[in-house]
Structure formats: structure tokens, C-alpha cells
Amino acid sequence: MSVHAPGRAARRALLLLAGVAAGIVALVPPAVGSTMIPLPLATLADHAGQVIVGEVAATRSYWAENPRRIETEVVFQQVEYLKGRLPDSDTTFTLLLPGGTAGEMTVRLTDMPTFAAGEKWVLFLAPEYTTYPVVGLSQGAFRVAADADGVQRVYDADRRPVAGLDSEGLVAVSQASPGGAATHLVSANHIRIKESSPAPRDAQPLSYADFAAQIRPILDQSRDHHLTAPAGRPVFTRCRSVPLRLFGAAPVAPLDSARISAAASAAQPVAPPTARTAPAAEPVAGTPDRRADR
Fold first, then answer.
1. pLDDT tens figures, 30-43
2. Count of domains for the chain
3. What SS3 class is residue 100?
4. Is 189 helix (H, G, I), strand (E, B) or coil?
5. What tens digit of pLDDT does each residue of 132-150 get?
6. How far is CA 5 from CA 9, 10, 11, in A?
7. 33 Cβ partners below 8 Å, 6+ apart?
């Protein structure tokens, strides 16, 4: 392998690209986390197979196999079903989440709620999942905590007070006006960012009783998934080979175990090498031939 040093023109182009990249990085403010499209509560309800309310009794993270991964088992107790109660549902619910800490390894998905023993949650659970069991990632998770007067109040997954639903059915939370990257995009590029209507910063969190009263009619009118097993079941992605096709060429069928076995059976066995005796060398002119004397 040979390595070629860039010429003077190439070096100038690289320096120019580096300067442009540095300028872009300097103009864009840092952002943390991912960007999610806000979902109305009716959409969360339609995609949820079950909506449960329960207190975290215990969590356990461990290495799982096939495929090898870290997952966390969260056990809820005193569970109430706001949607999708099954005939055999009881007051205990076990949820498997991707990620966690096992030994010295920690895997955590960004913008996902974390659960600790003693916390009470309202969860909109997808019937099954490949990424995360809560509908809308953190949007379908609501924390319920008692205030100083002992009233159970509702917060979102980021611990922001939930003030109710806005005119478009989005969850209104108490938060500051958007800033940072969002402000830059709006002011510089005139981009309209869709987000829920923020409630006043000092808004009182909605009580759990009022929150449940607001969402029950929406849940009653939402899609019924006709579940036969608890929601929030993980489904692992299965990989398979696909044929490659060049432009103008016929597709090549993928190899499978049957074709490999057939090819191996049709192959002709190769005979093992045998010892061979080199032919006797012809006498050199001018030397006596002694082969007759042997």
C-alpha cells in the first residue's frame, strides 16, 4: 500500500474546508439530546396498547443474550390500567428497557426517562417495540409526585410541571421560552418550530385526579389493539442477506444453507498428492553414460 502526500493545491483546499467547518461550528450553538416532533395526547393514546399507572418497586440491569446487550428490568407495583387491561392483568407489571449499567459498562438512550424505586409513573406503552416501549420516547411518560400538601401532581419525564392540554391537544408544560439553537434557527432562517404551548413558569402542576379526568375520554376513544399479552414487549430486528444487483445485470440470489450444501455435494473431491520420482537426467555430452552399468 502506498501513501501519497497531498500537493500544494490539495493542502490549500483542506485548509479552506477546515476553516469553513470551524466557522459553521462557531455559528451553531451547542445542543444536547435529540429532536422529537411533539405528539398530541390523542396520538399517544392511539399508539398505546396499554396505559398504566404504577409505583416502581425495583429495577435490575444485566447482560442479556441473543443478541448480547444490556437491558433493565423495571417492576411496577400497585398498577392501575387506564387503557388495555387484560383478563389476567394484576397489580404487578414488569417492563424491559434497553440500556442500563452492568458491571463497568453503562448504556443509556438519550431523551429516555429513567426510573427509580419509589417513583410513580403514568406510561403509554406500545404493544411491542424495537427501540423503546414508551410511545413517543419520553413524551408518553409522566411522573406523579406528591407536593408539600400531599396532593399527587403530574410532571413530564423531564420533571417539568404539566399544566394540562393546549388547544391542539398537546401537553402544556411549564418551561421557559425556547432558546439556544432553536432561537438561532428561527431568527436566522425564519423556520417555524412546532412545539407545545408553554404554560406560565409558575403554573401549578395539574393534580393526578384532574389529569386522569382529562385523558380518560381520549383513552376511551383511542384505538383498541386487541392485545393478548402485556404491552411493551421487545421485538428484535432480524437481519438477512439481500441480493446485490449491478446496473444492467441480473440479480444475484443470496446464499442460504441449502444452496451451500448443494454446492458442497456437487464439488468433485481432489485426489491427495502422491510421491513422484523425478526422471533421470540425460547425460551431458562428453561424459560417459553409466546408466547401462547400473
1. 444 456 789 999 99
2. 1
3. strand
4. helix
5. 999 998 999 999 999 999 9
6. 11, 9, 9
7. 110, 111
